[in-house]
Amino acid sequence: MKWTLVRYRAKPDRADENQRLSAAVFADLTAKKPAGLRYAVFRLPDDTFVHVAALEDGATPLSSFESFKVFQKDIRERCAEGPLPMEPQLVGNYGMLTDKA
User: What is the pLDDT of residues 25-37, one digit of tens each?
Assistant: First the structure.
């Protein structure tokens, strides 16, 4: 499984817009139910967003969904601090990550 973590801080006047665009991605994923894809987005009090995605081999990547393309389109203009993608390694998990999507 490949993990991706992306962190960025939205401009205060664009943070709610960013959250709405993220919600549209979740609505799309809920409707399409892609197998092998896990995805979560967290918003911190300072308008920092943290996206965590896990993709099994052969699964459809998040970047192939139209709603995610719309989300990404103007991301840099919405950010006070641009996206910083990373590939974290899972060290441990106790009940946080499940096999259920």
Answer: 999 999 999 999 9
